[in-house]
Amino acid sequence: MVFLISTLEECFTFLDKIEPNVLFYGLLSFTLIVSIWEHYLSYRQYCNYKRHQTVPDELADVMTNQELDKARAYAIDKMRYNEIHSIFNEVESTVLLLIGILPWLWSTSGNILLKYDYHNHEILQSVLFLSIIMIYSAISGIPWSYYYHFVLEEKHGFNKQTVGFFIKDTIKKLLLTFVLTLPIFSLLIKIIQIGGDYFFVYAWLFITIMSLIIAFIYPNYIAPLFDRYDPLREGELRSSIEKLAEKIKFPLAKIYVVEGSARSAHSNAYFYGFFKAKRIVLYDTLIKGYSLHKDEDKTDKGNKLDETKSEKNEEETNSIETSKLETEDNTLTHRKTSDDQKNAVDEDQKSTKEKTNKGCESDEVLAVLCHEFGHWFLSHNLVNLCISFVNLFLVFSIFAALFKRTILYEAFAFTQTRPILIGLLIIFQYVLSPYFEVFSFALTALSRRFEFQADHFAVKLGHGDQLGRALKKLEKDNMSYPFSDKLYATYHYSHPTLLERLKAVKSMKQK
């Protein structure tokens, strides 16, 4: 281990020969180059959206040209939003760095603690520093998030949340960020302080263990704080899933349906869990005609029917006992009420019809899950987990070789102190930025390969046709535009495009 760190330290000796200002602008320039590259790719994709296309033959059975135009309009609106948001964030972060926000905020955090007689307490100062950044980030992000959900998504019919739901969601996320982030960073800084020459090994083990713990507690205890999770009701779909799981020896423990429709019309499916206790989660928007409130709706309808009958009996009794004029008035009022109720029922029926027209049939949902089972059967999740842990060890090793170099802190105007938190920020966000770009691209390419393999698994089990239909319906329901710029898709998409997947599925079925 010592040899590894000493070797890495020698590799980075060239940094000591660079002037602090030159290093600062060099790191800043690389982030600018990456941003320009990203904007170039986005421009290519935007031009792709603007080109008029007709529905591809593969989607002719599920999509019309009008629906394709709607998908294109949605894609264009999202691209414009993402570009404006991205440029704003880049300008904001660059300006804040140039005016020296980091040393000022660190100094301010220390001055606040001094008022309460906390002198040179690095962990508390780091906690306060992080807290201020998280609060600022949360507040500054609210207008963007509000616009995305209540303007952009609302315009295209995807937003289902109310303003109250949005506010509660934002507060919950901020509190959760505090609860998880502050203790983890405090312990990490303490480990680095007392870990000695092998602190990077202890830091790596700590973050690895915390990642596994969060992966366990999030779906079981945190996710239910934001959405409703109910067991999938007994029926054909549940029986089919259980039979498929038994057939491939998938250790299925529970099947949940999450009320994704409370916040969005988008759909998804996934599984989680360790060892012999896997749990499947299906979005209610994925299952055609499914509602978590089915039983509640029946009860409500029964109550409303009883109330209507009671009101009708009362009206009949009153009509006998009252004068003819009063009877006529009551009749007019009753007709008006009936008309209002009829309009309300028509609206409900229209909404219900739109919902039942979306989603997948049971055999198509099963095919989607068969694809997910393929990731488990082929150990894709385990491979990704191992890669992430090896990568984490590597970056902590590089951090150990770099974080004591004064030049890095001086480049960001930290001339008097070398806080560990600032070292983590500089090294992970700026110094290792080129490495992370390459690593991210490699993971994206690997992910696409895994998706093809999972599709192949579903085809081998005889679900190829159903998977193809499900993919096409999901593309239509999520209003995804089927055409993409090749370079943009290669760099950004963790999944192959729909047309690529349909072509591959067709080819697999013919083998």
UniProtKB/TrEMBL annotation:
<feature type="compositionally biased region" description="Basic and acidic residues">
    <location>
        <begin position="296"/>
        <end position="312"/>
    </location>
</feature>
<keyword id="KW-0482">Metalloprotease</keyword>
<dbReference type="InterPro" id="IPR032456">
    <property type="entry name" value="Peptidase_M48_N"/>
</dbReference>
<feature type="active site">
    <location>
        <position position="372"/>
    </location>
</feature>
<keyword id="KW-0378">Hydrolase</keyword>
<feature type="transmembrane region" description="Helical">
    <location>
        <begin position="22"/>
        <end position="41"/>
    </location>
</feature>
<feature type="binding site">
    <location>
        <position position="451"/>
    </location>
    <ligand>
        <name>Zn(2+)</name>
    </ligand>
</feature>
<feature type="transmembrane region" description="Helical">
    <location>
        <begin position="382"/>
        <end position="402"/>
    </location>
</feature>
<dbReference type="Pfam" id="PF01435">
    <property type="entry name" value="Peptidase_M48"/>
</dbReference>
<dbReference type="GO" id="GO:0071586">
    <property type="term" value="P:CAAX-box protein processing"/>
</dbReference>
<keyword id="KW-0472">Membrane</keyword>
<dbReference type="GO" id="GO:0004222">
    <property type="term" value="F:metalloendopeptidase activity"/>
</dbReference>
<feature type="domain" description="CAAX prenyl protease 1 N-terminal">
    <location>
        <begin position="45"/>
        <end position="227"/>
    </location>
</feature>
<feature type="region of interest" description="Disordered">
    <location>
        <begin position="296"/>
        <end position="356"/>
    </location>
</feature>
<dbReference type="InterPro" id="IPR001915">
    <property type="entry name" value="Peptidase_M48"/>
</dbReference>
<feature type="binding site">
    <location>
        <position position="375"/>
    </location>
    <ligand>
        <name>Zn(2+)</name>
    </ligand>
</feature>
<dbReference type="Pfam" id="PF16491">
    <property type="entry name" value="Peptidase_M48_N"/>
</dbReference>
<feature type="transmembrane region" description="Helical">
    <location>
        <begin position="174"/>
        <end position="192"/>
    </location>
</feature>
<feature type="transmembrane region" description="Helical">
    <location>
        <begin position="87"/>
        <end position="106"/>
    </location>
</feature>
<keyword id="KW-0812">Transmembrane</keyword>
<keyword id="KW-0645">Protease</keyword>
<feature type="binding site">
    <location>
        <position position="371"/>
    </location>
    <ligand>
        <name>Zn(2+)</name>
    </ligand>
</feature>
<feature type="transmembrane region" description="Helical">
    <location>
        <begin position="126"/>
        <end position="147"/>
    </location>
</feature>
<feature type="compositionally biased region" description="Basic and acidic residues">
    <location>
        <begin position="336"/>
        <end position="356"/>
    </location>
</feature>
<feature type="transmembrane region" description="Helical">
    <location>
        <begin position="198"/>
        <end position="218"/>
    </location>
</feature>
<keyword id="KW-0862">Zinc</keyword>
<keyword id="KW-0479">Metal-binding</keyword>
<feature type="active site" description="Proton donor">
    <location>
        <position position="455"/>
    </location>
</feature>
<dbReference type="InterPro" id="IPR027057">
    <property type="entry name" value="CAXX_Prtase_1"/>
</dbReference>
<protein>
    <recommendedName>
        <fullName>Ste24 endopeptidase</fullName>
        <ecNumber>3.4.24.84</ecNumber>
    </recommendedName>
</protein>
<feature type="transmembrane region" description="Helical">
    <location>
        <begin position="422"/>
        <end position="446"/>
    </location>
</feature>
<dbReference type="GO" id="GO:0046872">
    <property type="term" value="F:metal ion binding"/>
</dbReference>
<feature type="domain" description="Peptidase M48">
    <location>
        <begin position="231"/>
        <end position="508"/>
    </location>
</feature>
<keyword id="KW-1133">Transmembrane helix</keyword>
